[in-house]
Amino acid sequence: MCEQTVRRKFAMATSPDDTNELLERASGGDAKALGALFMRHQDRLRRMVDLRMDRRLRGRLDPSDVLQETFLEFTRSLADYLRRPELPFYVWLWMITGRKLQTLHRRHLGAQVRDAHRDVSLFHGALPQASSECLAAQLLGRNTTPSEAAGRAELQIRVQDALNSMDPIDREILSLRHFELLSNLEAAHVLGLSESAASNRFMRALKRLKKILIDVSGMGVDA
Q1: Can you give the pLDDT at residue 218?
Q2: CB under 8 Å, gap of 24 or more: what pairs does 11-18 form?
Q3: Confidence label for 32 from pLDDT (cuts 50, 70 and 90)
Q4: Distance CA 57, CA 102 (A)
Q5: What span, in angstroms and rounded, lies between the C-alpha atoms of 220 and 223?
Q6: Which domains does the chain have, with CATH numbers?
Q7: pTM score, whole prediction
Q8: CA-to-CA distance for 48 and 142, rounded, in angstroms?
Q9: Higher pLDDT pick, 81 / 152
């Protein structure tokens, strides 16, 4: 079996069954399959952008702008990926999205963009961190009456501070698994960990998060 065939089988084996069929069709030049393949993963990618976009860009840039640029890169690069698929398909797509978001940060913020050393090294490259502010908002929910707004704002700050006290990799694996809905295998590839190490780290981080939320607000979080 030639190396190219082995690599393509890797891409198929590490993707959901519905993605497998679309990858096969897209590799044969089916334009409809190409669009459907991206649409199949668009919601998860949007969650990723929502959590990682610099707050200074909100109102100036929409997640749809990032996804549009991601789609263009995806259509240009899919054939190359299928020739040498070194990552599961969705991880590859996630990485493209992260790089596009990083480029947009630099384009719009210039010298104001966060230093690269403050971003987390994800698969040998610095990509925007999951925002503690966004993670806290996700944990607290967004339904707040005007009378509750001040208390919620104070609680969110406390949750953000607690999240910022966590190890950056623990925050990342919580974001990847719990909020961005990556599988354990996908998160392991993103963070450069073995599957068992990623699973163990996620469970420890989840327990820490539950304790933080109970200490701060009496909340809990479902695994």
Answers
A1: 61
A2: 11/81, 11/82, 11/85, 11/88, 11/89, 14/88, 14/89, 14/185, 15/88, 15/89, 15/90
A3: very high
A4: 12
A5: 10
A6: 3-121 (1.10.1740.10), 130-217 (1.10.10.10)
A7: 0.79
A8: 18
A9: 81
